[in-house]
Amino acid sequence: MASLENRFVRNSDIAWRIIDGEALVVSPKDSLIYPLNGIATRIWELLDGKRSVSDISSIICDEFEGDTAVIQKDVVDFIQDLLKAGLINGM
Amino acid sequence: MLSKVKFKIADITFQFSSSYPKPILWIKDRYKTYIAEDTPDLDILLEFKKGYRKEGNLNGPAEVISENGKFFFKTEFFNARGNYSNGKVKVLSRYDVGVADLTRTLFSIIIVKRGGLLLHASAIADKTRSYVFCGPSESGKTTIARLLYKKDVLTDETTAIVNNHDRYYAYSTPFFGELGKVSKNIGAPIKAIFFIHKAKDFSHKRIDKAEAARYFLYNAILRGRNLDLAENILNNVAKLVDSVDCYDLYFKQDEDLWRYVNGIS
Fold first, then answer.
1. CA nearest B105: which of B221, B226, B11?
2. Which residues of A41-56 are buried (b: 16+ CB within 10 A; e: fewer)?
3. What CATH fold (topology level) applies to the domain B117-262?
4. Where are the domains of chain B?
5. What is the pLDDT of residues B130-161, one digit of tens each?
6. C-alpha distance from B102 to closest chain A C-alpha (Å)
7. Phi-psi region of A4 (alpha: psi -120 to 50; beta: other; left: phi over 0)
8. For site-directed labelling of B64, which of A56, B103, B164, B228 has its Cα 20 to 30 A away?
9. Nearest beta carbon to residue A31 from set B225, B235, B241
10. DSSP readout, A13-26?
11. Which 59-88 residues of chain A touch chain B by CB within 8 A?
12. Cβ-defined contact of B234 to A20 (cutoff 8 Å)
């Protein structure tokens, strides 16, 4: 479960690459491909195990125009989805 | 006494050796257009061992490991171990079938390690250029190959994309579809790659690199992906979209197709 104080890191068994500002994330073990849009790509980049969900949310709020509460909820939901898909691990 | 045969697909030369002549004779017949005498890049020793044959699930997921310069894969039919640097591959087959599947699996791994891709795509060559038409089953790859029969059809199903000094070439492969075998083993520099969609009329749009990369990943052929190969594919796709113009092509079944395609690129 992702909450604001948690930290997550990208799973080392996942291949990814940013092409033209958008990340393509490949889970080799189940042959699934996850294309991420620009904001999702930025969140993905920030999931380095050092920053908390709250830190990431603040960075996204600084970098993108939008309602802070909405952005925070979206960041938490997205990280939760990544966790569910096995693309990231909790620290 | 070993029977041997050499053949070349997209500049990669395979040598199969086996004490059992049947698969060698099969290759000589089926891959006639691809028979070569070059020094092999892959030297494959094929051994057979009778085993219990479980019915069904013959195309189950392959287990593939690729790391530290070596690869291993295991399917319903084969156990294969290979070394990327010296090209030596040992294959133990349980059944008297599946050489095509083995060749395709080996080729799909090696081409990725060499900077290329094996794609679900038909392709044609016109003088010194090639055009690739990429899409999943039922998208119209064979239809396009049939419509463009006056050109050199490289393949109606599976195109090898090769990076040669940062220039991309499309090559024919023996992994054909409904159209059957092609008569020429050739390749040519790629002028454009089209992601195809059946439609009532002709139209097209240039697509951005991120979208093209997604299409390539969805249409790349590689059984049993592992991390090393997935990273290689991503790198290869990133370079490919930087170098080649990619389009969405909506097409109708009409002989004007060539005129339309030629006009785009």
1. B221
2. bbbbebbeeebebbeb
3. Phosphoenolpyruvate Carboxykinase; domain 3 (3.90.228)
4. 3-113, 117-262
5. 999 999 999 999 999 999 988 999 999 999 99
6. 20
7. alpha
8. B164
9. B225
10. T-EEEEETTEEEEE
11. none
12. no
Instruction: Report yes or no: A39 at the B interface, CB cutoff 8 Å.
Output: no
Distance from CA of B222 to the nearest CA of A (A): 9
Q: From CA B123, how far away is CA B155, in angstroms rounded?
A: 6
The residue count of chain A comes to 91
ipTM of the complex: 0.88
Return the amino acid letter for B153: V
Do B7 and B27 meet the contact criterion of CB atoms below 8 Å apart?
Answer: yes
**Cβ contacts of B209 on chain A, cutoff 8 Å:** 19-20
* DSSP-based three-state secondary structure for A61: helix
Shortest Cα distance, chain A CAs vs residue B24, angstroms? 33
pLDDT in tens, B2-58: 899 999 999 999 999 999 888 899 999 999 999 999 999 999 999 987 765 555 555
Where is B237: in which H helix or E strand?
A: helix B227-243
* A30 contacts chain B (CB < 8 A): no
